[in-house]
Sequence to fold (398 residues):
Amino acid sequence: MQSNMSAATFKLTDQAALSPAQQRLETQLFNFITTHLNQKQTGLFVIHGDAGTGKSAVLAAAFSRLQAQSRSKDATPLQGTDNYLVVNHNEMLKIYKQLAGDDPALRKKDFQKPTPLINRLAKTSQTADVVFIDEAHLLLTQSDRYNRFNGHNQLSELINHSRVVVLVFDTRQVLKLKSYWHSADLAPFLAHYPHTTFNLDQQFRVTGNDQVINWIDGFTQGKLLSKPTDANFDLQIFADGQPMYDQIQQQDQRVGLSRMIATADFPYVVNHGTWYVTAGQLKLPWDKVNLTDEPWALRPETLNEVGSIYTIQGFDLNYAGVILGPSVGYDEAHNRVIVRPERYEDQEAFKKRSDLGNLEPLQQQIIFNSINVLMKRGRYGLYLYAVDPVLRRHLLAL
Fold:
């Protein structure tokens, strides 16, 4: 994947070929598409993988190849097929549209958010041939007036309007109740439709060794393990946010793509002035609503802001400075990292659901999911500051 400032952050470089596992995935995927394109039932191809396992990179490469065959002058089984790549994430959609500008096989209209595509296909009674869905765990699982979605489940709707659906799915990256997927929620779809699943488990983004990955995974399960040692990965704990920010600025000057990001623990109202994130002596504004075509992480001025899960999910950074806000604490009686939903400021994430039972464990899981997303952004380094004094003390003691 690219690591310089000017490049889309999950695009493969010319030198970076797909890994053997990714190549196997692409081969299986094309075999599946050609087999199921003309079957009576929609075929589902599900790709699982944790943050940083290269899901978007292989999806982008496979979709480019699919569209090249669709638009080829030479007769192929996929010539003339009507295909789309869907993602329910504004910043990632911008990256995909950037890729379209660099690739003769792609058009910007190939990339869509789910609701407009569903509504158009329904209105015109059309069926798409192949629909790729990146970050399918962000699809809505209830109607949503704000997003003009009147159905009950966006995945159901996309399946109903497609011959083959290829979806990337990771329940550990669900960030809102309105798109909440239990790990078992895919099972009814898989029981009903012919399907194949493929698991990507090699970490491509975080260059740290297994100790580093295990430490992050442990943290997001409430365990504070011994601090890992890895000469090739810079994991640092800070007593104050200002020196952490100073170091992020130095890394950005040195290698680019280094940013401050934080849990959604600091008040923020869209289009109502400037809202700040505080971390000890540090005070920086939250990311602003980005109306440009350039993704947040690629704009130089955002070095002076703090990114959220919504601006950074799915992207590579070189170095990530992560502020763990007041909702993330430590229970000394049980020696566990804990999260406190009542201190989480992302009201949109916790909009009430009457169909999910007791919401508190789900709210806790959403906060831990967001921490996992943030901690797995940095390729070469993760810097941490905890606002909660008890958690900060235990982190520093490592």
About this structure: Residues 20-36 form the longest helix (17 residues). The first strand starts at residue 43 and ends at 49. The two ends are 32 Å apart (CA to CA).
